[in-house]
Amino acid sequence: MSLHYARPGKAINIRYTTLLPVVIPVVLLVTAAYIQWVTVGLPELPPVPEAVHEPQGFPAWLRITHFINLLFLVLLIRSGLQILMDHPRLYWNVHCTPGTEWLRLTSVEISPDHIWTAKEDSRYLSPWAGLPGYRHTIGMARHWHFLSVLFWVANGMIYVILLFGTGEWRRLVPDSWQILPDAWAIFAHYATFHPPPEPDSFYRYNALQQLVYFAVVFVLAPLAIVTGPSMSPALTNRFRWYPRLPGNRQIGRSIHFFIMCGFIFFLVIHVAIVTLTGLVRNMNHIVLGVNTSEITGTYLGMAGIGFVIVMNALANWTAWRYPRALQHLAKGIVTPVMAFLLGRAAPYAEFHQKDISPFLWANGKVPACNEWKSLAIDNFRSYRLKVYGLVNNPVELSLEELQTMGKKTQITLHHCIQGWSGIAAWGGLPLATLIQLVQPKPEARAVVFYSFGEGAAGGRFYDSLPIENALHQQTLLAYEMNYSPLTILHGAPLRLRVENQLGFKMVKWIEAIEFVEDIKTIGKGEGGYNEDNEYFGELANI
Ligand SMILES: Nc1nc2c(c(=O)[nH]1)N[C@H]1C(S)=C(S)[C@@H](COP(=O)(O)O)O[C@H]1N2
Ligand SMILES: [Mo]
Question: H helices then E strands: how many in the chain?
Fold first, then answer.
């Protein structure tokens, strides 16, 4: 077995079958504008709207929500890039088989018959671009992403409510199909570098502007909001129709990425046009809500952009210097929301045999201790799972005993926090059956799973579940994968499966199980090895 096998390739690799459908429409539109220009001449521009329309100017709430939106959008994009680089590949298929990605942002090409763990595959990202930057800082990136998204969505909801509560929606929502030819005429002018006369945006937008703003607010933003949770294992597990759309997690992730590209594209063009069409006056509209030409708005606007930059620097800094505090902040704010939205007693989702992935990425360090090695040589015949702690009936069970106690097989979708997924069939003992046998004492609140293996930074790997989730019908102590005994790579002799959680909760190479009152007494007290050392959130359902 050769470890860490990877071939260097090009640093960025994109499949034309995905790139072309995105690029061709843009090229066609621009080409059409040029053809029209040189053949019949540019289309006639719609009349510049009169400057008498209501509403006039931007009210304070609109200017404030516009600014807050910018702040959190930048935090979301930067933390999102960091999350992306933890598994720098995008796919349209749910199996994430190496070689099938449509976008690869790493030079590493992988041969599926060699071992290259998903963690090794994560890439460095400059802290200028990423929040918080560096390599495999997904724990902190997620805290910033989720904290930001709560504020971004709340701000967006306030904005939309006030938009329709006042007359401001009239600026944004087209009121006739005439907008399409009008927007085309303006586009053709821009595309051929004939800047059309600008209406005074204090009163009205031009047709193209209105169309684009409308699309950003009512298409791009909602799509970002729905594709985010489509990557959540709890959501998959909750809605039974989900498995009928295999592939959804990676499609959701890819679309989420395109939406980010869309926001960046919009941001660049939006800022460029605001600058080119009269920066000083425009900044007074945007910042002060007045239609004058003094420089105040520009200076204040620059100060606002400076504030966004400072907040981003602070966000990086807290993630590097106070990761534990950030983790606890997210636990206080994000966890209750996620628990409310996705943590309720969920039904379970299963897939079909034909859906099983040809390859499942692996993570974790195969145990190096002599105890596990000598068990492995003997095919785990002398393995004894130790179950102890706050139970009336502590036990030690051989693999054979575990197998005779019961077996459930489930075909499920694995979600790694890094972004990859895969479907496999798992066979094992429902944890509920073991819990019945050992009879936890009433004060036992959590179940801790200890591995024979070490975590990435040394020390024993472990994780925990609250008793309620340990009793979920899809929580298994698996000893089979895809109808064969568990392989060493995937956790022999025994591993955990908890299908409504992310992969890092599913301890492989289990040595012992302990029932405890409070996870604070274990390790560094955060609930698991990755929670302790990589600042992951302990509620791993999204
Ligand atoms: N002992 C141990 N178990 C572990 C890990 C680890 O590092 N050590 N990694 C976890 C993570 S992050 C994932 S995604 C899954 C991967 O399971 P697989 O290798 O069977 O795909 O194992 C989990 N169990
Ligand atoms: Mo993972």
Answer: 17, 15
- Mapping DSSP to helix (H, G, I), strand (E, B) and coil, where does residue 418 land? coil
Q: Which helix (H) or strand (E) holds 287?
A: none
> Greatest CA span in the chain, whole angstroms?
88
| Ligand 1: residue whose CA is nearest its atom 12 | 504
SS3 64: helix
- Distance (Å, rounded) from C-alpha 397 to C-alpha 390? 17
pLDDT of residue 198: 85
- The answer to whether the CB of 451 is under 6 A from ligand 1 is yes
Q: 90: helix, coil or strand?
A: strand
What pTM was estimated for this model as a whole?
0.95
What separation in Å is there between the alpha carbon of 492 and the centre of ligand 2?
17
pLDDT attached to residue 1: 33
Residue 298, pLDDT above cutoff 50: yes
* pLDDT value of position 344: 67
Tokens 């907008």 -> residue: 179
Q: Can the peptide bond before residue 132 be classed as cis, meaning omega within 30 degrees of 0?
A: yes
Residue 4 φ/ψ region, left for φ over 0, alpha for ψ in the -120 to 50 degree band, beta for the rest:
left
Atom of ligand 1 nearest to the CA of 509: 1
Closest CA to ligand 1's atom 19: 362
The predicted-structure confidence for 69-123, as pLDDT tens digits, reads as follows 999 999 999 999 999 999 999 999 999 999 999 999 998 887 666 688 999 999 9
- Tell me if 507 CB under 6 Å of ligand 1: yes
Non-local CB neighbours of 254 within 8 Å, separated by 6+ positions: 90, 91, 92, 102, 103
* Residue-level pLDDT at 130: 98
Dihedral pair phi/psi, residue 56, rounded to 5°: -110, 130
The bridge status of strand 103-104 relative to strand 495-498 is unpaired
Assess whether pLDDT exceeds 60 at residue 235.
Answer: yes
- Whether residue 423 has its Cβ less than 6 Å from ligand 1: no
Q: Is the CB of 490 under 6 A from ligand 1?
A: yes
* Residues 6 or more apart in contact with residue 91 via CB below 8 angstroms: 100, 101, 102, 250, 253, 254
Chain centre to alpha carbon of residue 163:
29
